[in-house]
Amino acid sequence: MQNKFRFLLLALLALGLFAACQTATSGEGPQVAVDWAATPLSQRTPLPTVTPFVPPTSIPLVTVTVTAVPTTTEPIPTMAPTPVPSGVYVKESDGFTFFYPTEWEILEQTGESLWLRDNDLGTVVSVSSSFKDEESGYDAYLEEFTGDAFRASWELDSVEVTREDELPFAGDHTAQVAWLSGMAVDGRQLDFWLAYAESETRSFFLFAAGEPDSLEGRQASLRQMLAQASLGEIRLFGLDRAKTLVVLGSDPLARSLDPARTTGSAAGYVGMLYSGLVRMSPELQVVPDLAETWQISEDGTVYTFTLREGLTFASGRPLTAADVQASWERAADPDTDSSTVGTYMGDIVGVREKLDGEANEISGVEAVDERTLVVTLDGPKPYFLAKLTYPVSFVLDVDTVDEDDEEWVFEPDASGPFILRDYREDEAIIFASNPAYYTPPLLDAVVYLIGRVGSSISLFEAGEIDIAYLGAVDAEQVRQPSNALHEQWVTTTSMCTTFIQMNNANAPFDDVNVRRAFALAVDKDAYNELVSEGSNLVANTIFPPAMPGYSQETAVAAASYDPEAARAALAESSYADGLPPITIAASGFGDTERDDLNALVENWRDVLGVDVTISFLDPINFSQVVTEEAVQMVSYGWCADYPDPENFVDLLYYTGSEFNVSGYSNAEIDALLEEARVELDPALRLSLYQEIESLLLTDVAAIPLTHGVSDALVNLRVQGFVLTPMGAPVLQLLSFATENGGE
Known about the structure:
Layout: H1 2-26, H2 35-38, E1 88-91, E2 96-99, E3 105-109, E4 113-118, E5 123-131, H3 138-145, H4 148-153, E6 156-169, E7 173-184, E8 189-198, E9 202-210, H5 212-217, H6 219-228, E10 230-231, E11 244-249, H7 269-273, E12 278-280, E13 286-288, E14 291-296, E15 302-307, H8 321-332, H9 341-345, H10 351-355, E16 365-369, E17 372-376, H11 384-387, E18 418-424, E19 428-433, E20 445-450, H12 456-461, E21 467-469, H13 472-478, E22 489-502, H14 512-520, H15 524-532, E23 537-538, H16 552-557, H17 563-572, E24 582-587, H18 595-608, E25 612-617, H19 622-629, E26 633-639, H20 646-653, H21 667-678, H22 682-698, E27 702-714, E28 718-719, E29 735-736
Parallel strand pairs: 11-20, 24-25, 24-26
Antiparallel strand pairs: 1-2, 2-10, 3-4, 4-5, 5-9, 6-7, 7-8, 8-9, 12-13, 14-15, 15-17, 16-17, 18-19, 19-20, 21-27, 22-26, 22-27, 23-27, 28-29
């Protein structure tokens, strides 16, 4: 029902703007809360996007030898959108053109929709187009606009269809049209006009609202707009579809395109544009990127990197060791406000001092010459190279950075495999192969479609996208061998674990028996079935199965659902006579039901007779906010940024770590974590981390719930795709099969 709900939202936005306009002039009209609706989409904060974390699967990795492309000193131009004349709305990815009176006011225009207002009569019009899915259609839209939710939203006593008709649309098509009349609780009448039309793959929707006289007075204009609309060739922003990879994406925040400030992985947009000294391969091995080779001192504290010869930025400007140093100095500058530099580069001597404002430069980084960079660590850190695969260490041309205007990120001088060719808000972000990169991608371009209405599986079936990451319901279907898409399905366990973290310094969870009671009271099988249709894995360990150091023996030995043992543990605790009020913190605004949290609360109530309150905290800065709140329990999830157990237990459970959101603290575990950090023997390191995990589980520092499983559909023409357990960049390695349109 995605189409219907999306267009209901657009209609509510249009009505909200109408109501705001009318009440400002006449003082009449429905008394509704429209603040959120009146906020332009461009000013809203997008919800965090979940990056699919994906182990190698059955699609083979194609090894390609690429001839180096000569670099140029000329800048690579960024193609700007073709100017659209006034009175015309064009959505070329749908082949849709809509004409409207030039004197009408544009309230908002995005890649998804256009909102207009006729200031003479006060009519508001919204026009949209989208991919057509199986649940869209005239009847579905009409049902939404005559339903209880619509009436309640706008305080209407009633709304009814007064007339239906068919009118010409875009030449040889027909639109189904309905007139609706609504009576507000204050006795004021509002009329609505709905028109729905469709082509083979697209649906088109026009919504108008106004007082009866104003809407009736614009009937001729509305009919003319319907008839003069145009359905032309569906175009992909001037690109050759046969040579372009198309996937779903989201509008980027400016911060997410800055390697020093992003909190996303190298598999995101920032990894398309920028590169570091090393990168993570799809097989989760650290491999050379801008650095050709490196040497490590015997004590493991000094790394000497040699850059590839002839490196340049996309503009053609030479990329040298001094640029690496300058990028790192900027990342560690407290004014840059990087939230990740301390975690991923804090092992370098001098980084923390600069980050704390105690030094002007990083003492442990030296650009010896154009190709040589020497880096000194504060101790042997076997996972240091893996940390450098995180975007905060990536290289950018600092001379192009405008710290006073973050819009500079949309005109980057790329050091990575792609350049940013075009960004169309709410419609698409388009990357083109960077010919200045030492191994330019074989793909001509990658298009991330934004704001597309329709499920990813329906868009994949229609050929709209080449790779579709699946939710639990769709994954359940394509996993069946009888499913028509099964041949294109890939799956893997991810390096992600969801769990409940508990604060062992905060009553009542300062008693290990209380923590154990809460852990034993959770029915993880039922929980997993609820949240993922059983497609994820039930977790009894902190480490996910793809993580080095994962122990099947630990998983088997770990405690599981046992109501009697849970009640016995609580009875043995120092709180047997009564528990204080208990709250679990979660990320969100509390505006939607969270079945997962409700299930946990119900488990604890049924088994232990305990009522737990859910507290929602700001999801944008959740780690910081929840740490400041000093909560008792936290609903949390963690996905590895590099395949080392240090990235899990050291960050999540070391006393004072910024990601230790529950405030858990254990001196014995801290000492073992410090020992494991500097242990150079791989086997001994893993054994230390296994010991740490066992101690954490025995002390019930957390209640592991599920390990993630990722599922995707990959078009057979795409070669070289590997679904990895974590966010490793793979798009620059892809090519297209020759028989399916590749070169």
